[in-house]
Write a structure and sequence with these properties.
CATH class of the largest domain: Alpha Beta
Strand order of the largest sheet: 3-4-6-9-10-11-12-13
Structural class: alpha/beta
Largest sheet: 8 strands, parallel, barrel
CATH superfamily of the largest domain: Aldolase class I
Radius of gyration: 26 Å
Number of helices: 21
Helix content: 25-40%
CATH topology of the largest domain: TIM Barrel
Bound molecules: iron/sulfur cluster
Oligomer: single chain
């Protein structure tokens, strides 16, 4: 079925066994800028799952390249041992592994000593996203940095990696030199196209000279930076053609976006609203004009999509990084024809890049075992098979039931509604969030495969539990919407976010959404209201709508809401509502704010635990474990992790 995806390919003098790639991505798993046991375990799991090529996360090649506190550094020989440990972990599975040599230029975020570092770039062109004014890199520093790329690549070779990738993507340093809008130098590294390409050209040559012909040297570049003043495809095609003609590169890895602006950064890890494989037409243009293999990244989530990209001749390899975070076994399952058992990534960004931005190790909302390979290593078989009753079929209950069954317990899950899936069923109905439903599809299928007996339309009470006499009970009964505690005068129309998602008839006119959660619900409901031809005023109890979301998802949803004409009022709390006015208070100044001519007010105040059953089970005589929203409001990610933890020790 996957004749192209499963076929080997030569990259330079290295043969990669299939076309599936885990591309370079920050993991947050380095310790003291070095490879950790967890990072080794993370990559070993992907190699065991059948991936053909792993490209490690960036390694800084100069002290001025240290853009986060939790990145790898390749600036001295102590890095070699870490590369060796990863190489030794993945090579037994036939997986090849490359490193990334990296300098962010002006895209600096943090420093080790707690002060904001000086960012260096081609010249002083400002960075809008991190509000940096970089220093122009002096000539002697350019020489040092280029030598740093070569030093880093050599350390990767000494550590037993199979290759290295020069990172010129996402607006990082080589792209800053290449871009005429940012490079205002007047020396041999600025001005003409030839001069602006010189930094990258010199870097490629320095790396190749140092590592020799047997070690793979590749280039990662954004085919389109998708941002005002960013590199555009014609410029990138020209650079790729010229670098390819030099004959020193073994492959080109094409991605999109730039770290330089909010709009461009969305494409670094594109959320679910972006079309599957949307960058493939860009890589196709580069593939047309170079002789070396081309790799593409950008929402290629499923093996079927990857096979299509290859069949269309748009790329030679597909980076499927999030698909592999979500299901490290994806390559083996795909190539063995077990497509139904693949846990597909839904592009939510919450636990992968979301964790990275929050400063802790990456994981997956659907698979909390990812990034925790040293702690959760299935099958963890049970010592004694027990009967386990799980009450509630939301994400927490489904995960707990699945893991308990996978470990060998006899598990029955009871759900009061006609469908299992809980809050995921709500999320999938919002504009641009349909793919979220995949999380429910995946986990339901996993539960069924694990042998969980799922019983729907069955509300469990204490008597039923006592009569069933299970060995253990997991209560995952979810939540109820929190009600507004405000002054209500006359007879205003008041709705709850779930009503709108459920399709309740809306009055015509202006509708206020009182959003305390600052997550996807308020933004999604506001867009839904606009789609129904009403005006939406989103009043958020925070600094911005979507404040709690991963930033690329947030910015993507904010852009969509803005384009749809949603009016957003920030930092306000609802104090009262009457027939046509919503009375708010500014959270910082305390000043009153009013929204008039209001036809209805929709509250999105978050849930309260529904845990009455826990109290009923005081005397049930077996272990009772409450998880998920039944304990306190949980995100889908938190709920699934709690399900895993609860089932791990039964
Ligand atoms: Fe995919 Fe979401 Fe998991 Fe990230 S957290 S790998 S986007 S499903």
């Amino acid at each position: 079925q996957f004749s192209l995806l499963s076929s080997p390919i030569d990259i330079g003098r290295v043969t990669v066994k299939n076309r599936i790639v885990s591309s370079g991505h920050d993991t947050g798993m380095s310790v003291d800028s070095a490879v950790s046991d967890q990072l080794v375990a993370y990559h070993r799991a992907r190699a065991a799952g059948g991936v053909g090529l792993i490209v490690l996360q960036v390694s800084g090649i100069h002290e001025t390249a240290r853009y986060t506190t939790h990145m790898l550094m390749a600036t001295d020989d102590s890095a070699i041992d870490g590369y060796r440990r990863i190489a030794e972990a993945v090579h037994p599975y036939g997986t090849k592994v490359f490193g990334q040599v990296f300098h962010p230029g002006r895209e600096m975020m943090e420093s080790l000593d707690g002060s904001r570092p000086v960012a260096y770039s081609a010249s002083n062109a400002i960075n809008d996203r991190f509000h940096q004014v970089p220093a122009a890199m002096p000539k002697d520093m350019i020489d040092e940095v280029i030598t740093g790329y070569a030093d880093g690549a050599e350390r990767m070779r000494k550590g037993g990696l199979d290759g290295t990738e020069i990172v010129a993507s996402h607006g990082y340093l080589p792209a800053q030199f290449l871009n005429a809008r940012f490079n205002q130098r007047t020396d041999e590294y600025g001005g003409s196209y030839e001069n602006r390409l010189r930094f990258l050209r010199d870097t490629v040559r320095a790396v190749r000279d140092r590592v020799g012909p047997d070690f793979v040297v590749g280039l990662r570049i954004s085919g389109e930076e998708m941002s005002e003043d960013g590199l555009v495809i014609d410029e990138v095609v020209q650079a790729c053609r010229d670098l390819d003609a030099d004959g020193l590169l073994d492959y080109i890895s094409v991605t999109a976006g730039t770290s330089a602006t909010l709009g461009g950064a969305v494409h670094i890890v594109p959320p679910m609203s972006q079309q599957v494989g949307y960058t493939a037409p860009i890589s196709a243009q580069i593939k047309k004009i170079v002789d070396v293999p081309v790799m593409v990244a950008g929402r290629v989530n499923q093996p079927q999509d990857a096979e299509t990209v290859l069949a269309n001749g748009q790329a030679d390899l597909c980076a499927m990084t999030r698909a592999l975070i979500c299901d490290p076994e994806m390559p083996n399952k795909a190539l063995d024809g077990e497509l139904d058992s693949i846990r597909a990534c839904i592009g939510c960004n919450q636990a992968c890049i979301g964790h990275h931005h929050a400063g802790y190790p990456i994981s997956c909302i659907q698979r909390p075992e990812s990034g925790r390979e040293l702690v959760y290593d299935l099958p963890n078989p049970v010592v004694r098979r027990k009967s386990v009753m799980v009450i509630g079929g939301g994400p927490a209950g489904l995960k707990a039931a699945t893991v308990a069954a996978q470990r060998g317990h006899e598990v029955t899950l009871y759900e009061a509604e006609r469908r299992v899936g809980g809050q995921v069923l709500l999320a999938e109905q919002l504009p641009g969030r349909a793919e979220f439903g995949g999380a429910a599809t995946n986990i339901i299928a996993e539960a069924q495969r694990a042998g969980v007996n799922i019983v729907t339309r069955h509300r469990v009470d204490g008597d039923f539990v006592r009569a069933s006499a299970p060995d253990a009970v997991i209560v995952a009964t979810g939540s109820v919407p929190r009600q507004p505690e405000i002054e209500i005068m006359d007879e205003p129309t008041i709705l709850e976010a779930r009503d709108v998602v459920g399709g309740v008839e809306l009055p015509h006119g202006r509708i206020v959404i009182a959003d305390w959660r600052c997550d996807w619900i308020g933004l999604g409901v506001a867009q839904m209201i606009v789609q129904k031809g009403r005006k939406a005023v989103l009043c958020v109890d925070g600094y911005m709508a979507g404040e709690m979301l991963q930033q690329y998802v947030r910015d993507d949803m904010l852009a969509a809401a803005h384009a749809a004409g949603v009016e957003i009022v920030t930092n306000v709390r609802v104090m009262g509502v009457d027939e046509d006015t919503v009375y708010l208070q500014h959270r910082l100044s305390g000043q009153p704010v009013m929204v008039e001519d209001v036809a209805a007010t929709v509250f999105s105040l978050g849930p309260l635990p529904e845990n009455s059953l826990v109290r009923e089970l005081d005397d049930v005589g077996c272990d009772v474990i409450a998880i998920g929203d039944a304990v306190a409001p949980r995100t889908v990610e938190e709920a699934i992790l709690e399900g895993l933890k609860a089932a791990w020790n039964i």
